[in-house]
Amino acid sequence: MASERSEILAGGIVLAVALGFLVYAGNASGFGSDAGSYPLKASFRGVDGITVGSDVRLAGLKVGTITALSLNPQTFFADATIMLRNDIVLPDDSAILISSEGLLGGNFVEIQPGGSPDNLGPGDEIEDTQGSVSLVSLLMKFVGGKSDTAGATE
User: Fold this and answer.
1) Is 151 contained in some domain?
2) Domain count of the chain?
3) Run means of pLDDT, 10 residues per run, the chain, 154 residues
4) Positive or negative CA dihedral for 58, 63, 69, 71?
5) Rg (the chain; Cα; Å)
């Protein structure tokens, strides 16, 4: 009888630890509550390397996450919803772009603040966007040696 109780107690402890780990992992990955953040929208020509949960950074520090990506059927652009921390207030002429951490690193979304005295509010759209740049297409242009003046004579 005592061994059954100890087995049940040990199983309960293992389940409690597992549940605690799942809650911690969910909060750390951005799947927790968004009580301390507000949404912004942006529309990109291309979002290669960005997924839901990707970091949004300002001056190299994480200030938000991508919470939704969808294709706009009218513009054929990728519409993104960004949850930004409440303590970050951006001027309405800020720019947002997709950057790379390097040749082997992943992509993230970078915010470049503007200088306007007016600020973006919840649900506003960042108009100045730059989509991802394909490293393969850049390398192909470089290797191919194509330039605008290749056929020009002096």
Assistant:
1) no
2) 2
3) 82 87 68 72 87 90 92 92 91 88 78 89 86 68 64 48
4) negative
5) 23
The answer as to whether 45 is a domain residue is yes
Joined together, the tokens standing for residue 126 give: 């960042």
CB 108, CB 49: distance < 8 Å: no
Instruction: Tell if the pTM clears 0.70, that is, is over it.
Output: no
Give the domain extent around 66: 37-142
CA distance 65 to 67: 6
Tokens 């297409």: give the residue.
137
Query: What does the alpha-carbon distance between residue 132 and residue 108 come to, in Å, rounded to a whole number?
Result: 10
Residues 123 and 101 in one domain: yes
Together in a domain, 28 and 65? no
